[in-house]
Amino acid sequence: MIYGMGIDLADIGRVWDLTVRKPEFTAKFLTPREQTELAKFKGMHAAEFVAGRWSAKEAYSKALGTGIGRELSFLDLELINDATGRPVFTKHPFAGRAHVSITHTDKLVMTEVILEQV
Q1: Which is the catalytic residue, given 40, 45, 104, 107?
Q2: What pLDDT sits at residue 21?
Q3: Known active-site residue 104
Q4: pTM higher than the cut 0.85
C-alpha cells in the first residue's frame, strides 16, 4: 500500500552554483558515500548528480510528510546507483520501501518518490 508520494523540481544550475561557491555545503546534504560517487563525475554530469540527489531527498521528505528539518535531515537519506545505474535509497528512516525516479533536462531535474508499506 502506498504510504506517501512526493515530487520535486530543482534548477540544476542553482544547486550546482551553490555547491561550487560553498564547497562545505556538499557535506551538509550528501553522505560520505554519495560524495565518493560524486567524485566520479565531471562537468554537467556532476551538476546533474548533485541536483538529482538534492531533489530526490526533497521529494522523499514530502512523501514522508515531514519536510527537511527537525524530524528529517538530508544526511538521514542516502541514494546510491545500483549496478545498472538505477538510483536506490540505501539509507532512509521509513520502514517500508522507497521508490525513486530522477529525470532531467539541461536545466531542470524532476524527482518522484513513492513510499510503500510492506
Answers
A1: 104
A2: 94
A3: yes
A4: yes
> Residue 33's domain is classified under what CATH number?
3.90.470.20
Residue 25's domain comprises 2-116
pLDDT given for residue 23 in this prediction: 87
Tell me the percentage of the chain whose pLDDT exceeds 90: 97
How many Å apart are CA 28 and CA 4, to the nearest integer?
25
Q: Which string of DSSP letters, residue by residue, matches 67-104? A: -SSSS--GGG-EEEE-TTS-EEEEE-S-SSEEEEEEEE
Q: How many domains does the chain have?
A: 1
**According to the annotation, is 58 in a ligand binding site?**
yes
Distance from C-alpha of 110 to C-alpha of 56, rounded to nearest angstrom: 8
Q: Which of 22, 45, 57, 62 is catalytic?
A: 62
- To the nearest whole number, what is the mean pLDDT of the chain? 96
Q: Is 112 annotated as a binding residue?
A: no
Task: Verify whether residue 45 is a known catalytic residue.
Answer: no
